[in-house]
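Format is sequence with structure; example below:
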Amino acid sequence: FPNLSWNSLLAWSPSNFEVSGVIVGEPSYFSGLGKLFKDSPPSQIRNYMRWYAYSVLAPMLRQEYRDTRFAFEKVLYGLDIPAPRWTTCVYVVDRVLGFALGRLYVDQRFNVDAADAAEDMVDRIKNAFISSLKQIDWLDNATVALAEEKAQSMHAKIAFPRWILQNEELNSYYSQLEVSEDYFKNMLMAQKAEHAREWSRLGTPVDHGIWDMTPSTVNAYYNPLENEIVFPAAILQPPFFSPGYSNAANFGGIGAVVGHELTHGFDDQGRQFDKNGTLKPWWPQDAINSFDEKATCIVKQYSSYTIEGEHINGQLTLGENIADNGGLDSSFHAYREWVAKVLENREEKALPGVQFTPNQVFFLSYAQTWCGSSTPAAAKESLLSDPHSPVSARVNGPISNSKEFSDAFQCKTDSLMNPAKKCKVWQ
């Protein structure tokens, strides 16, 4: 990368840290960045860097600076009014003191039964996924066995890291954070403390207990380097999960999330890592070719969907779309296995006042978790940058590929939600 000054970048490292090498995870990005630096006037680069610094720092400054930044966001995202002050405050506290806030959330709001139920659901969905591997005709037996090993080895972190319940450990985690009465200074010191924490990990044994999300985050993730799936406490609540919900609703909600994250271990990127999180080729070329063929169907399907007159980028969203489809399928089959074993094939009781079968409730619960809205401008911006498909496609895409959905709602053959050709990868 001749057009990048690595020495200038590495000058930001701590004085006591010796840089022995740099791992470049995305070479094409840095090649493009170097070309951009070479071809762009220096004044243009300086202006962008000034704007970027201003954009990052403006929310920490007084109102006139925040107003200027919001004027830009109005154009980019089509916003009408700034976010309520309380949401900004909660966001900042979670960003800076996320595990301390998570401790309060766990102490005051979290239902421990949710964690136990989630653990049971993870096991059931993992078993359903492994069972589905044996039905796949495009994957050779040896690779199926390795995929099963990877799924079995996948570790689940649920609710919160247990160390946050220990005051001494929690205080130690934030020991480098200096807090004053100056908000701007506090935000800078928070970034400094976080950078120091990150630098201190370099050159040390891998800490397998690290969480990349705080307990109060409504989200989940798969980490390919650790082969782990993580579900913070805050996602183990309605509309995703409730001890008072039927299992059909819970499997359709948090169950589909569990299946989604598990399937990430076998999407277009996750499949390149083995059970130990090592990036290495463990698939034969024939299997790779078959996977790519299946994935191409998903790409074409999602690229046919439009939002605000613009097509979804099926290649950009491929990994998430594979995970959505596989997650829904694995969770549904795990639910039906639960009905067979626990209820001895007797269906759950219908919800009071609701004329839907349990299978229908499963799919309605799945769709409910994706209810949302966005401005036209924000929707268009997401099409360019977000690896997730818009919420309407995250519902209609996987559901139209599901034979079980068509059976549950008796959709006519070759109708919009029951096309004759369905895209399948891990089903």
Remarks:
- Residues 85-109 form the longest helix (25 residues).
- DSSP finds 16 helices and five strands in the chain.
- The mean pLDDT is 94.
